[in-house]
TrEMBL record:
Xref: CDD domains: MFS_MCT14
Biological source species: Sinosuthora webbiana
Gene label: Slc16a14
Name of the molecule in the record: MOT14 protein
Domain of life: Eukaryota
Span of domain Major facilitator superfamily (MFS) profile: 37-502
Length: 515
């Protein structure tokens, strides 16, 4: 399922001397509870990403209700989408300290609160705070753990598992579009948001299903079972070796940290024993002190891992391909979300509302998006197929569709382009796989947090920019052209960086020379 390092321009030596001791695999890796994690992530994508893809319905309601410009009104949806992704690096800190389950449950409560408070909005600026910020942060606190947990529970079938879980975005866009249309028609947009807030409380249930793996179980993912699997596993992970040589993934800092932690807890236990023998000491106070000490150790350890990943001397940003990946993400996501926000308005301009009411174009994108994610995931899991190459081909197809969409002014033409957009955007299911290949499972939460943060910046400015261009030109054409060209710049970065890396022979570290 992996791309070889030659696929992205890396050379690698003979690793055949490196072997791991056989360990009995955990039945929950690639099976058992892992499929419950996929179900949980699937439901999260329905309730969060699916709802956001259906915001075009509410956007039209807000335009009529508050009578503001399209550019200003589009900021409500953009803030919600953008903040969901932008908070990724900070959610990585929460995950490092509290774990995925706790983070997701808190996020579910915040998301529901944002929807409910938005039902009482008096103006667009009120929606900025309640729906954009509050619901956006809550969505981010659930979304990142849902992606990370699937990456932790799967090794052999990661692309397929991520593909199945992220199909929830397509199902959600289809279901939520129909649901919000019905609720707005029957009860009005305010009551619709209140009902949606109640539905969003199910995110807490999804978070409760995210049972954490033990550190021992995580280690078992890296057992090398055969020479053939080793050859397949020589993927985009040159950066992992580079970071190891710089010390990010080294064991010495961890051992020092663990020794310090044990010393702190040991002193607390010694104090507790003394407290039992000493008269007049409160056992409750000692237990409280011990709990606070353990919490402090956990927070320090989580913060140290988070800080080293982002700001350490050998941070993730020392990986050039990963940096190129981040630059690509800065331009890519807006090209996908702009059609969802502005397609209802485009259909209205072309007098295609009758056909669109029968089968909405956004629903076409959503339905085909489901098949795109699953099919691309299955293809990427084939031993002879490079995940990296599948990812690039899907990107090329999507950017071509974005540049072509303004040329289509009939319902059939728009439907065909929307179907291609839906299928090619299925590469989203490959993003966690490519990220994990670059940095490893241990740093997946922080690394993917950076990627979705870059996507969030793209989503934050994309729709308002398109609305602003429309206010000036009274057309959406230039919005799609500019978004497509910026997207192409990001793809060029993905292509150029591996070529540069290939020309510069990788220096071997002292450890590699000794081996």
């Amino acid at each position: 399922m992996y791309a070889s390092r030659e696929d992205i321009g890396y050379d690698f030596g003979d690793d055949s001397k490196v072997r791991s001791k056989p360990i009995k695999p955990n039945p929950n890796i690639d099976g058992g509870w892992a499929w419950m994690i996929v179900l949980s992530s699937f439901l999260v994508h329905i309730l969060i990403m699916g709802s956001q893809m259906a915001l075009g319905i509410l956007n039209m309601e807000w335009l009529e209700e508050f009578n503001q410009s399209r550019g200003l009104t589009a900021w409500v949806s953009s803030l919600s989408m953008g903040i969901t992704l932008i908070v990724g690096p900070f959610i990585g800190l929460f995950i490092s300290m509290c774990g995925c389950r706790t983070t997701a449950i808190i996020g579910g409560i915040l998301n529901a609160l944002g929807w409910i408070l938005s039902a009482y909005a008096a103006n667009v600026h009120y929606l900025f705070l309640t729906f954009g910020v509050t619901a956006g942060i809550g969505s981010g606190m659930v979304y990142l753990p849902a992606v990370v947990m699937v990456g932790q529970y799967f090794q052999k079938r990661r692309a397929l598992a991520q593909g199945l879980s992220t199909t929830g975005t397509g199902f959600g866009a289809f279901l939520m579009t129909a649901l919000l249309k019905y609720l707005c028609t029957e009860f009005g947009w305010r009551n619709a948001m209140f009902i949606q807030g109640a539905i969003s409380l199910n995110l807490c249930v999804c978070g409760a299903l995210m049972r954490p793996l033990s550190p021992k179980d995580l280690c078992e993912k890296y057992v090398v079972k055969s020479d053939s699997e080793e050859n397949q596993a020589k993927a985009l992970s040159h950066s992992t070796e580079t970071i190891k040589s710089n010390g990010v993934l080294g064991e010495e800092p961890e051992k020092k940290e663990e020794a310090a932690n044990e010393e702190v807890l040991g002193s607390v236990q010694h104090t507790e024993i003394g407290g039992k023998s000493g008269s007049g000491r409160s056992m409750y106070g000692l237990r409280l002190f011990k709990t606070v000490s353990q919490l402090t150790v956990t927070v320090r350890k989580g913060f140290a891992l988070w800080y080293s990943s982002y700001f350490g001397a050998a941070s993730l940003f020392t990986n050039r391909v990963f940096v190129a990946f981040v630059i690509w993400a800065l331009f890519a996501y807006s090209s996908f979300v702009i059609p969802f926000i502005h397609l209802p308005e485009i259909v209205k301009q072309y007098n295609l509302s009758r056909q669109d009411n029968v089968f909405p174009l956004t629903s076409i994108i959503a339905i085909v998006h489901i098949f795109g994610k699953v099919i691309l995931g299955i293809i990427s899991d084939l031993p002879c197929i490079s995940t990296w190459n599948v990812f690039l081909m899907a990107n090329f197809t999507l950017v071509t569709c974005i540049l072509t969409l303004p040329l289509m002014q009939t319902y059939v033409g728009l439907a065909v382009v929307c179907a291609l957009i839906g299928f090619s955007s299925g590469y989203f299911s490959l993003m966690p796989v490519v990220t994990e290949d670059l940095v490893g499972t241990k740093h997946l939460a922080n690394a993917y947090g950076i990627i979705i943060c870059a996507n969030g910046i793209s989503a934050l400015f994309g729709p308002p920019f398109a609305g602003w261009i429309y206010d000036i030109t009274q057309k959406y054409d230039f919005s799609f052209y500019i978004a497509g060209l910026l997207y192409m710049v990001g793809i060029i970065f993905l292509l150029i960086q591996p070529c540069i890396q290939k020309k510069q022979p990788r220096e071997k570290s002292t450890e590699e020379a000794q081996v």
